[in-house]
Structure formats: structure tokens, C-alpha cells
Give the backbone structure.
Amino acid sequence: MLELKNPALYKNQCYINGIWENANNGALINVINPYNNALVGQAPDMTADECSKAIDAAHQAFLEWRNFPATDRAKVLKKWYKLQMQNLDDLAKILTSEQGKPFAEAKGEIRYGASFVEWFAEEAPRVYGDVIPGHGRDKRITVIKQAVGVVGAITPWNFPNAMITRKVAPALAAGCTLVIKPSELTPLSALALAELADQAGFPPGVLNIITTNDAPSIGKELTGNPKVKKLSFTGSTKVGKILLRQSADSIKKVSLELGGNAPFIVFEDADIDAAVEGAMASKFRNAGQTCVCANRVFVQEGVYEEFVSKLAKAITQLKLGDGMIQGTNIGPLIEPKALDFVEKIVEDARTKGAQILSGGKVAAPHQLVYEPTLISHPSTDMMLFREEIFGPVAPVFKFNTEEEVISLANDTQYGLASYFYGRDYARIWRVAEALEYGMVGINTGMISTTLAPFGGIKESGLGREGSKYGIEEFLNIKYMCWGGVE
Ligand code: ADP
């Protein structure tokens, strides 16, 4: 049992049409703390029937919510934002307990998540249209933007709070309503957000949460139900492809934020200390379990040894263990399957001749904390070059020329985040333009902010989240042609 200042945030029911509900069949999901395997709580294990009911509620609510003046929608969103900030510690505690990330990082996530709610509350009244010169003397052209309708949102476990608010805030600001399916591994953060939404005063049915152990069935309902007009998904490329295929029959609008294989490039003229700091932030946040984590570090020959030795030193400073203990930097991986995968990747590198300079094993037997691992002299035939590692493992490749590193960096089906460090401004432009990625961090390892369009190209996804572009994903453009204006 979690001890919270505000126990109302600790939920074990779903939120549908403004009512807290159990699963029809009474089934529950056990939510497990990945650090100590303790039972954190339970959430209903719902089925497609309940999802369909939630979609009906969202549809009914949409008919009203879209007609609220944008300033009124903004007021409720702002209240939700304030409640999230007031309950910051509790939300972070729930998050760390079910996800494992260090408490300080969890608090950072709550602030980041809430910042979308604040930002899009302000954007709601700024959904401007256009007036275009007509194509005849008697013609006038106007353009308006309208909410697309009911949105289905499917979110992952690595950011159990922010991946929800990043979708929900722009959708609600635009006038859409939602049915949200959080990850079965981290449903409690989603339910706590729903409690605060209830307190903020969203009308019933505007925001609905369905938790389940049967993601494929709920996914089929959200993609197949004609009342859902838009699907927004964050998760693996594999599942993103399934959902895109399933959405084809009803031609839904789809946003996908999928996997990455981020290059992190350090040129010889870079500030090496800053590059090490950026690599640490980008690689080891959330124990390497983010889709924008540096996956492959490329360092130019002349500074390779210096960079590797400084990175090795920085890694020794990391504290491993229970996220709830102050000072912890690296918590557990999310589940045994994730640990198996990281072990497989490191073993593959080891057998193919890479040097494991530090780490390379679990911190303690029968636990999911994996030691931060530094790998030198890896090669492109290793799994770590192609696969999204999703663990605290940093392979550092050596390169010689700019052309060579661009070609290595782009040699992947992914195109989400990329990073590089250097000072030559002409090269900065060349490299930033040549990287086939949706986002480029230049002399920084931290790129996520509400203010910028987050998203990928290639098999990393469709659409953008955050910034003025984020709300467009939830709007349809309508053009009106006025004739007979004599
Ligand atoms: P990860 O590898 O990060 O766990 P997934 O893509 O498996 O990513 O999971 C992201 C989200 O997608 C979770 O909420 C999960 O329950 C959901 N999910 C997994 N498989 C399906 C599916 N077939 N249809 C719909 N949602 C799914």
C-alpha cells in the first residue's frame, strides 16, 4: 500500500464517463514495483466491451466539449495543471513505485508532463483559421480548423505520466475527447491523472481511461470503432505498424511516436567535457529506457581515448538501486524480459570482440538493476548497432571523417533523435541537415521540451507532439468557398 499525502490519487478502478468502474468480470492487473517485486496496487483488467462503452461516452461528450468556447476549455486545463503541480510529490511517488525511475527523475517527469497541460491550455484559444483571396470576383475563401472527434491514445510504461499529458492536453485543447489505454505495467499514474481531471471539472466522458492486460483487443477496438477518428500511439515500431494497418480500414488520422536508434557524435573540435555531460544525460536517464537515448556513440579518432576515459570516470559516479532512495541515478529495468534483452545485446557484443570497459552485468542477483556499461571498439555487425538497446549500455564507436560518420549515423531504419558536439559552424549546419532524423541536439544531450515539435521520420513515426505543431494533429481543416459576393 502506497502512503500518499492525498490518498484519493491511489486508484484501483477505471474512469469511464466520469464514473469509477471495475471490470465487468471483476478481473484485476497486479502492478509490481520493478525494484523490489512488491505489489504496488491493482487496476481493472478491462475488455473491448468496456472500451466500446468508453468510446460511446467520449463520443457523446465530444458533441458538447467541442462547442465549449476555447477559453472555457483552457480554464479546466489550467485547473488540471495546477492540481498536478500541487500533487507533484504524490504523482512522482506513484510513478517511481510502478516504474522504478529515480524519484528526482519522476518529479522531473511530472513537471514536464504538466507543462504540456499548461502550454496547450494557452494554445486552445489560438486555433486560428485563414482568409485567402478568392479565385473570382464574387468569391471569398475562408479556412477554419475543427476538432477531429474521439481520440484513442495508447501509451507506454517508460514515461507513464508525460506520454499521456503530451497527447491529452492538445487533444482536449482542440476540442477532442479521449479514451486512453496506458501500459499494463504502469496504469496507476494514468488513474491518478484521471482523479485530478475529475477534480479539475472536465465534463463526464471527456477523458476516459481503460486499463487492461489484453492490449491487442483494446487496440483493435480503438482502431476499428468508427466513432474513433484519431489514434495517437507511443511505443514500439512493431506495435505501431500493427495499429497503422488496423487503422487503414477506417482511414483514421494516426500519430505514431515509435522506436529510435539515436547517434551521438563527438567531433574533434568539440568541448569534450560538455560532450561527456551530454552523453551521460542522454544515455543514462531512466536507465537508458527512453526512445531518444543515445544508442550509438561515435567519437572522432583524435579525441576517442580522452572521451572514453572521461565517460568511464563519469559512469563511476552513478548510484544504483531503489529509486525512492535519495541520490539514486539508475533504477531497475522495467521487467525481466527487458533485462534478458539487454543481457543478450551485451553478450553479442562481447562474443563479437568488443571490450566491456565497465558494467556488463546485473548489479545484484535476482534484481533488475543493470550496471551502467561502457563498451569500446564495437562494430556494425553487432546487435547494438541495429537494435534499440533500452538499457544503460553505451557503445562508443571510433570514426575518422565527417562523411563516414554521417553514413554510419543514417544507417538505420529509425529516425527519431540524433545528437552531435562540435564547434565549426559550417559543419554544424552540414551535419544537422544531413542527419536523417526528426530531431537534432547540437551541443546538448537534452532536447525534450513542450515548446518544440517532438517526433520522428522513417520508421520512428508520424506526426509531432508538443509546440504549435502538436495541436494540428487533433484538428481537421475545413475550407469554405463563398460565392455570389457581388
Ligand atoms: P514497449 O516495447 O515499450 O513495451 P509496446 O509497443 O509493446 O512498447 O507497448 C506500448 C503500448 O502499446 C502499451 O500500452 C502496450 O500495452 C500497447 N500494446 C502492445 N501491443 C499492442 C497491440 N497489439 N495493440 C494495441 N496496443 C498494444
The mean pLDDT is 98. The longest helix spans residues 103-123. Residues 345 and 383 are 6 Å apart (CA to CA).
